[in-house]
Queue: 2 jobs
Job 1
Amino acid sequence: MFREITLGQYYPTDSILHKLDPRVKFIGTIAFIIALFLIKGPVGYGFATVVLVILIKLSKVPFRFMVKGMKAIAVILVITMLFNMFLTPGEPIFSFWILTLTKEGLATAVRMAVRLIYLVIGSSIMTLTTTPNQLTDGMETLFSPLKKLHVPVHEISMMMSIALRFIPILMEETDKIMKAQIARGADFESGNFITRIKSMIPLLVPLFVSAFRRANDLAMAMEARCYHGGEGRTQMKPLIYAGRDRTAYFLIVLFFAACIVLGILGI
Amino acid sequence: MLIELKDVSYIYSKDTVYEVRALDHVDLAIEEGQFIGIIGHTGSGKSTLIQHMNGLMKPTEGRVLFEGQDIWAEKYNLKNLRTSVGLVFQYPENQLFETDVITDVMFGPKNKGLPEAEARARAEEALKSVGIPEKSFTTSPFEHSGGQKRRIAIAGVLAMDPKVLILDEPTAGLDPQGRDEILGEIRKLHRERGITIILVTHSMEDVAEYAERLIVVNDGKIPFDGTPKEVFSHYKELEKMGLAAPEITYVMHELRDRGFPVDVTASTVEEAKESILRDLKGGVRRV
């Protein structure tokens, strides 16, 4: 029942995007997201769409996996669209009660929706083609200059790796406990809001107990292996840029520059 | 017939790269009052199999019947089914959540819709039948030892008064004494209350000792289904599946190979002892 969330779920296959260095993909995703907010007109959006379609094709990940991630933001999407449609002042199209749909509002709503959807798909491409571990490795190297400013980069990335690593475990655990309680006649689906919240207690208490137990075990295991933080720590698979990564950087710069130009021109 | 699986298949993550066929056209019938052992190595599909028996998983193909009725028919009451087919998961102590033992055990009966007093009576009876002393009833379930917690969790399922009790490796991680005690209590439930027991385990010794019927699961199929003696006679095939016969079976085969005419179908130490003694007393010497 929790298998539907794809945001942050790796899809193992063999594609050029899977082989890229995680740092490239991370910077590329950031560039893509910023670019989405630079472009303004139909030409810009058309350009972004073409780039996105090419990326989806390159990733070899079935498109429905990216659409699945969209379900998570469906509610936010609808709310943003409604607010934009009815609360933007401008030329009215029709009025209903105290709400007025404006032309400008409709345009903004569509733009926001496209931005949000592209944003989710764009970041899904990164998370679907990169394992969580690669991703945190990449971020650690990218942010390592901040160590000079006494930012605990290694510790943060270690915490992120652990958090990411535990998401599937805790989900599985939730699934198991839920099933065990359903087997004892628990009902998680019917009843009003209050009864539903109450019915969560048999799920949440065991989940917390197990999360604390796991955290304890992990801390002990790390200590037993003399873990002492980032100082002097080496990696089993250090990240090294290959030729294709340099090509990818070049394409990202090109894409970003094009988006800036399109944004300034306003088309 | 109590539970019937007809041509049941189950596929995990259908239509993705993660697709796994966990059950492959399984036909199975479970009669009332049996003590059944299910064995299979990790990932063979045995957990998936037992979750089909109380409607926690819906077969991708095929039908599941309980007392002759299709449990996935439109108006079938799955909640009732789950109280009739009690399922104790692996490490059931992880599902405890209440502030005291008795309230935790009452969770099942109360969900069944029983009034407070009756739920309490059921819970007390269930706790006693798994050997939890009365003075522990009002203590926190979390302050007990692993073995005790597991008993409390089993009582939580037992208190719903199920016709069938399915236990998924109830002895995993327990010391030998705790293991014998829990299995002894399960046998008592079977003998005294006539509850049908389905025991999933890795221990060949346990199934040889307790089960009257043994079902082997391998790769989502059921290659062997019979009395433990029949199944263990295929010990060479079992080994190919990553399983084995009880150790004593090997001892008996070795003895036979060295010329002692002992009974190689002996699957418990007790049976083996008798067979060897009979052989020695009979004065049969090496041939």
Note: Chain B has a mean pLDDT of 89.
Job 2
Amino acid sequence: MRSKDVSMSLKSSAGNHLSKSRKTMWEFSKRNPAGAVGGVILLALIILAIFASLLTPFAYDKSVGSRLAPAGSEARAGGTMLFGADHIGRDLFTRTLHGGRTSIYVGLAAPLLGVGIGLLLGIASAYLGGVFDLITQRVVDALLIVPGLVLAMVITLSFGFTLQIVIVAISINMIGGVSRVIRSHALALRETQYVEALRAIGASDTRIILKHLVPNSFAPAIVLFAVSIGGAITTEASLSFLGLGVAPPRPSWGGMLSTAQEFFRSGVHIVLVPGIAIGVMVLAVNLFGDALRDVLDPRLRGRS
Amino acid sequence: MSAYIIRRLLLMIPTIFILGTALFFLLRVLPGDLAVGMLTTEESSATAEEIEELRESLGLNDHILVQYFRWLKNVLTGNFGNSPLYDASVVSILKSKLGITLELAALSVVISLMWALPLGIISALTRGSWIDQTIRVFTALGISLPNFWVAIMVLLALVAFFNWSPPIQYVHFLDNPVENIKMLFLPAMVIGLRSSATITRMTRSMMLEVISQDYVRTARAKGLSPATVILRHALPNASLPVLTLAALLLAALVDGAVIIEVIFNLPGLGMLIRESITRRDYELIQGIILILAAFMMVWILITDLLYAWLDPRIRYS
């Protein structure tokens, strides 16, 4: 027992030269190596997506080389096409980077919107109770019983194939699940003694909700956010694969896969690249999200 | 218990009503005219009179609320309308396409359980070993890789390495069971990929929890063979929580079917959904979604009740 304590303190003193936030990251990485790797990959992908235009000399919507040129070939005006060209001659690397932009944007914005609305709805439902709760829960149930992809397809069909609509369509899928989890969490919070004390001293409902219930629901909300990113990215890719996602010429990995189907005999790379890109991004996000959940969950249990 | 069931059933009514109403108005938000869309083809376009005639016959000229109540009355009598594109009632179209997807679903579930449960058990029992690590890598990939990409790669491999070409005609099970299974096996596996990975993970973590329980120690102490301990005592308790995923799995199945059926060219429910949406057949879209949703609600209730029945610790007030 004793020697374990000593060795543990020795290990933790190894990070003593780091600042506090770096230390937290160091400890997180030690305990969740997979999550740390996922987080690093995710960060790298985000940076690649933000600086997409700077990283390649080519435009994503103009033909710059011969069609279906293999990886590493030369473009007509010079410069190498790292991943080769697609069936129109556009540089695949550039399109992949810009498609990554779409995926990351949707992958972060949709869960943010969905979890945000679900959070407010869940807390309001739990705290206000009564008729509001009854009606809200029926609406949430109605959302939950429709298969997610189908609902998103109907929404983009009804309102247009823009980036914003796709984000809204995907976020609506999440509102149901999130609000149910937050609602049961908030219901448990409502019964705690400190909320009872707050009401006893006369705090108004709004104050209790905004200043106490919401901050204490952040932990499950953050976890829900992290684990929904992968699903959002996959749904966006599925939507554009079916032709019901963001409209061209804005590239999306799903759309790229869809058009690549016809031409795979002449060039495997156009099928491999978008698919692997999606897989890597979703994998990284999932690893990170799982690790985040492991970290935040025990703390959750400690609170209630 | 029966009070609980009745309450659940009663709550379903407003839910499905809200869904139906929302769908009805959502689909009529669209600009563009159904009649125009129907009559305008590549070869010909319609005169103003023809369009007007069609609008009258479809009842599109009435006030939106009149249309709504008409639709409501129809649905309550089981009439989900007619699909203008397929020129048949929604219900009959659904019935004809349902079989393939149901078969896909059944196959998918069987295949998934066949390899997800054993892998989860093995992964738990050999925790930390390279076998466990490999299985965990596979499950991570299974959840992350988009299923339509896996489907395309599978098709690619089949064409490239086995000189296979996609069958043009769907072969019914009763006509030729072997051909039928051959056609549906790979799509079923791909559809079930993500769900299988999730089940494997859940089985693994539940097994790990269960193995450390006292009653398993007792079973081992009694001298029971490892197989008996695992299969008769640990596994039933470990796999029960998988039932809580049942609703999610069904939703994943439908979503998967929409894409995979399109890729493998199978004329089932998924392809029907996709066709009806891209061709803007509102009656059909509405009808399909409503019927699917109603089915999902009943499914959730059944799995909840099943879970309560199987686990005596769970009792609904």
Note: Chain A touches chain B at residues 138-139, 141-142, 144-151, 153-155, 157-159, 230, 234, 237-238, 241-244, 254, 257, 261, 264-265, 268, 271, 274-275, 278-280, 282-283, 286-287 (CB under 8 Å).
